[in-house]
Amino acid sequence: MGFFDGILGSRAVQFQSGSASSNAIELTKRQPTVSLTKQGAVHGNLRVNLSWRMRTSDIGGRSGQSGQLFRHPFKLFKPDMVQAHTQGMVNVDLDMGCLYELTDGTRGAVQPLGNLLGDLNDPPFVKLSGDDRFGSASGETLYVNLDHADDIKRLLVFVYIYDQTPAFDRTHAMVTLYPVTGPRIEIPLDERQPQARSCAVVSLEKVKGELIVRREVKFVYGFQAELDRLYGWGLQWGRGYKSTKA
Questions:
Q1: Which residues of 70-85 are buried (b: 16+ CB within 10 A; e: fewer)?
Q2: Burial class (CB in 10 A: 0-12, 13-18, 19+), 214
Q3: Does residue 66 surpass a pLDDT of 50?
Q4: Is pLDDT above 50 for 133?
């Protein structure tokens, strides 16, 4: 079970994302910000991706599997990501969402709970591609239409654990931003927070005329309502559920 804000619905939209160069910028505590404006990336669709896999210490790692290779030699050719899926990965359900505030004062949330998937070409100019429950290589993806950057005051991308089982310390999670130009921007969630249920990962905000990406990585023990209070969004939250997939 999880919690969500039943703020507004959304309609489907077709969209494309831009490509990014092969190099990357990792945001850290010492270097927490980067300017999309300075790298000429305040246009097109900014792609924000969440991916994760189990920590090798929780699934045995390759060292713990050496004795099994004689009985199952083809496991040698299975990547860690696939092996994680077969050894408890389905018990971890990380979801990505976004709090938004537009320049006209409109505030809301885009997230899987409540099917609040957003809209790319109309407010809030943010669109969630879907809900990935298995930490696949493609993960979950959020798109931000930066052609409407002047309509966006601030965004906060967050990750939460839907099934209420704290598991951030069991996963390697990464949020990656892919601007249409310049390097991709990586924010790893590598801090061990065994009791945390939600994490504010990264924010986008206009600062002195520049669109700034800021590493947040603030873990909380509650859900979206606690992130809301932490960042002063002022939304009304209620209980919500995700539909069961076959």
A1: eeeeeeeeeeebebbb
A2: middle
A3: no
A4: no
